[in-house]
Amino acid sequence: MTIVYGASEATADATTNSTTDSTTKPKPGDRASLTSYELAPGLLKITSRPPGNPTQVHGVLGMPKGEGPHPVVVVMHGLHHNCAFSDKPPYFLRKPVKARWPLVCAAPGEPHNPNLGPDYLRHDVGLSHVVQALTRKGFAAVSIDVVSPEHWWAGETVPEKGYTDLVNAHLRLLSDLNKGVNHGLDIPGVKGRIDTSRVGLVGHSRGGGYVLSPKAAQRAGLFGVVALEPAVGAEKVPHKVPVLNLRGGCDEDVDPSAGLEEMKELAKSGSTKVAADVLLAGTGHRMLNTNLPPTDTKEGGVGDCPASKVAAPAAAQAQAAQITASFLDQALRKSKSYRLPALEDLDPKGGNLRKGGPAVTFHRAPQQTFTDPLTIHEVTSKQRLLPAIPKDLKVNKRPGDDI
């Protein structure tokens, strides 16, 4: 059965319906749930030949309590290495969530290397804490696999187009689930409870860069955006909805100032009343994805921060997830002011950069706990959302030289 959580988690925002006795079958919406799903891999269309880019179709769906229908938030991870090193510390200091990649993790022209696969790292599952925090605020949240737009095995795809195509595919899946069309996935309690006409976007790293892009801003029904330590491009952020940029004070991959200039320009443009920027002290970049090593050294340092200045990974993950969920909840409700949770000793700092816009302040909040990603129930189906990968397509994948 699907993993459920409720009143037993003292830090959750909602409590479980305690009036249901052992003889009463729980109704859809009585409890929140997390489900990891996998559909058959497929092909993204690309701009060169041959016409396709292989990609996994993975996701983690969080359903909140309540009948709904619940607005959707799509969560996207960043560009990280996806061929699992089994014996190459410090790349993976603990057991990550992996899956089978149907292609080959190897350098071009070389045979399969057992140290590089075929295990494929599920970085979408690494952001399940963000999904779970969002469900506690009443969102149907989904973290999706977005590796394909950032890599090319058979030709290069435009990253913005790749992200958009994958978001559209997963939203199409959620729309079908809402209609009772399950695509072979056994996920109970979703029919009639998902509202894909209202969509929020959350992205980490390169995913954060995408959610700040003009293409993302064009999404119909968009009500709010959160960029987590974004790896941003050169384009201006044109959003008309509330936007929050979260920066890591110890960011080792992009920079502790990631997204700040973009938020200043957005605030100056006047296109949205909320262009908020918040700095998370002691927070590294890979730390926010539980599938990646949180620190750079055995001593625990991250980036330019010594171990003494680095936050506990679980606390940093909770802080980012709780702020994200709270911000989008208030964005959906078009709040006249925003109060964001601040965990003890982490002291996030920042506010709304838009002059005259709603104030963004902080209040002390307890640290939530989250389901171990390795224990999330998995459902699989051989059905597909994307066109099939041609059997004669020759694909080689190698880790980047900078990994």
Question: In a nutshell, what does this entry contain?
Answer:
The chain has 403 residues and is of the alpha/beta class. It is 17% helix and 23% strand.
Percent of residues in β-strands: 15-25%
Secondary-structure element series? EEEEEEHEHEHHEEHEHEEEE
Point out poorly predicted stretches.
Answer: 1-24, 86-91, 399-403
Which percent range fits the helix content? Answer: 10-25%
GO molecular function, one term: hydrolase activity
Region (Disordered): 1-34
Organism: Streptomyces nigrescens
Biased composition (Low complexity): 7-23
Question: How would you describe the overall organization of this protein?
Answer:
The structure is a single chain. The protein has 403 residues and is an alpha/beta fold. The protein contains 6 helices and 15 strands. Helix 1 packs across helix 6 (313-332).
Question: How would you describe this structure in keywords?
Answer:
alpha/beta; 15 strands; hydrolase; Alpha/beta hydrolase; disordered N terminus; globular; 403 residues; hydrolase activity; AB_hydrolase_fold; disordered C terminus; 11-stranded mixed sheet
Secondary structure elements and their pairing?
Layout: E1 3-5, E2 32-44, E3 53-63, E4 70-76, E5 98-100, E6 119-121, H1 128-135, E7 140-144, H2 159-179, E8 194-204, H3 206-211, H4 214-217, E9 222-228, E10 243-248, H5 260-269, E11 275-280, H6 313-332, E12 338-342, E13 349-352, E14 360-364, E15 377-380
Helix pairs in contact: 1-6
Protein name: Alpha/beta hydrolase
Region (Disordered): 1-34
Organism: Streptomyces nigrescens
